[in-house]
Design a protein that fits this description.
206 residues, alpha+beta, three-stranded antiparallel β-sheet, two-stranded antiparallel sheet, 45% helix
């Protein structure tokens, strides 16, 4: 993309127009605001300014990207650095993409952080909402299936030599396991859908 098609913009925080060169490469120029010291892109393509790119992009949902983002070893370095500066508390991830960083943060350090993620790209946020709905549906379904199996089998289903009583216990326990208990998943879905995180469709508590 050539420079003629790029739009100049002021600092998105303080709206100052005192950009100071910070770092650049042929297709990217990052500046530091001379007023508030925020790092931002001074000149951007029109589709990024309007949001059109993020409405139509499916990059965030590529199978390879999702597999990489949610890999158990993903974000090990980032989490180690993050923990040095923020050992606990509330976390806001602006530009959370698929929410994988927040997911790994809660998975590795349960009950330590209260997290919220927001992103201008609609696709990953909608995918998170679908994942929450699927999570709750599966949790409810496994309980119903195991209960019906026990009803069909009768009293023998509770004998230790048969696996049904273990299946029923595990099905109930699954709804209480973090980072997404059934209640947490439902609450986060409601908050995101109603815009309680300050942005309709945002990934509150992703």
């Amino acid at each position: 993309m050539n420079s003629e098609r790029r739009l100049h913009r002021c600092c998105p925080i303080c709206e100052g127009d005192e950009p100071r060169p910070f770092w650049s490469k042929p297709s990217l120029q990052i500046v530091r605001c001379g007023n508030c010291a925020l790092l931002y892109l001074e000149n951007i393509a029109p589709q990024f300014a309007s949001g059109q790119h993020y409405d139509s992009s499916d990059y965030h949902l590529w199978p390879d990207k999702l597999a990489s983002d949610y890999s158990p070893v993903r974000f090990e370095r980032e989490l180690r650095i993050f923990r040095e500066f923020c050992p606990g508390g509330e976390v806001l991830d602006v530009g959370c993409s698929t929410g994988a960083f927040l997911f790994q943060l809660q998975r590795r350090f349960p009950r330590t952080y209260s997290v919220t993620g927001v992103d201008v790209a609609n696709a990953p946020l909608e995918a998170v909402q679908r994942a929450r709905a699927a999570h709750v549906t599966v949790q409810r379904a496994v309980v119903a299936v195991t209960q019906e199996a026990i009803r069909v089998c009768g009293g023998r289903a509770f004998l230790k030599r048969y696996p049904l009583e273990r299946y029923a216990r595990d099905a109930r326990a699954a709804a209480l396991m973090r980072p997404w208990t059934q209640e947490i998943a439902m609450q986060q879905a409601w908050e995101a859908a109603l815009g309680f995180d300050g942005q309709p469709g945002g990934a509150a508590g992703a």
